[in-house]
């Protein structure tokens, strides 16, 4: 596995070693000792799997009272994945990183606690899977507005197609309005 820090060093891009032949491929997606050696000392308690159609934008979600670290990847299709630093004490507060994750490139992204997370579906459908370091706690969940101009996220939206967002995501708060981490 190759671990590479992103523009926000705490968010880590992980490129698994893929062993392939005429039968298909094999890769490790989680190896505690290797991740720990790369500075990711995470203990996961929940796995999630979602299916979304082209143009769906999910997020930007975060939990204040039960912050979640997430190890995310795509097993079918492609998404543009985004993490926003919401740690007020961070020199990267309010900054975001985004990249394409796909079944083809097999990349993973580690998003530590203290970040809002979301993704936009680039393919006809995408299956998105992720491990979490804490349980989903709906009473603790917050939503940051996906199109907050203060963030300036360069979502690669499909031309002429407004993103498909849930009512909860459409009602997200701006960074200036949102409750954030210390």
Helix-strand topology string? EEEEHEEEEEEEEEH
Helices, by number, come to: 2
Order of strands in the sheet with most strands: 1-2-10-7-12-5
Look at the structure and name the CATH superfamily: Jelly Rolls
Task: Quickly give the structural class.
Answer: mainly beta
- The assigned CATH architecture is Sandwich
Unreliable sequence segments: none
Describe the structure.
The chain is mostly beta strands and 182 residues long. It has one domain: Jelly Rolls (Sandwich), CATH 2.60.120. It has two helices and 13 strands. The chain has a six-stranded antiparallel β-sheet, with no helix packed on it. Strands 9-8-11-6-13 form a five-stranded antiparallel β-sheet, with no helix packed on it. The protein is globular, with a radius of gyration of 16 Å. The N and C termini lie far apart (32 Å).
């Amino acid at each position: 596995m190759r671990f590479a820090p992103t523009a926000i060093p705490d968010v880590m891009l992980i490129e698994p070693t893929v062993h392939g032949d005429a039968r298909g491929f094999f890769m490790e997606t989680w190896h505690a000792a290797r991740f720990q050696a790369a500075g990711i000392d995470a203990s996961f308690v929940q796995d999630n799997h979602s299916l979304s159609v082209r143009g769906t934008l999910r997020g930007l979600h975060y939990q204040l009272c039960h912050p979640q670290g997430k190890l995310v990847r795509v097993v079918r299709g492609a998404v543009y994945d985004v993490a926003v630093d919401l740690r007020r004490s961070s020199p990267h507060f309010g900054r975001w990183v985004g990249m394409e994750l796909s079944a083809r490139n097999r990349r993973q992204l580690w998003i530590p606690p203290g970040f809002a997370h979301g993704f936009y579906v680039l393919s006809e459908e995408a299956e998105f899977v992720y491990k979490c370091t804490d349980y989903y706690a709906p009473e603790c969940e917050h939503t940051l507005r996906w199109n907050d101009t203060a963030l300036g996220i360069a979502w690669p939206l499909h031309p002429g197609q407004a993103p498909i967002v849930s009512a909860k995501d459409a009602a997200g708060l701006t960074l200036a309005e949102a409750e954030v981490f210390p």
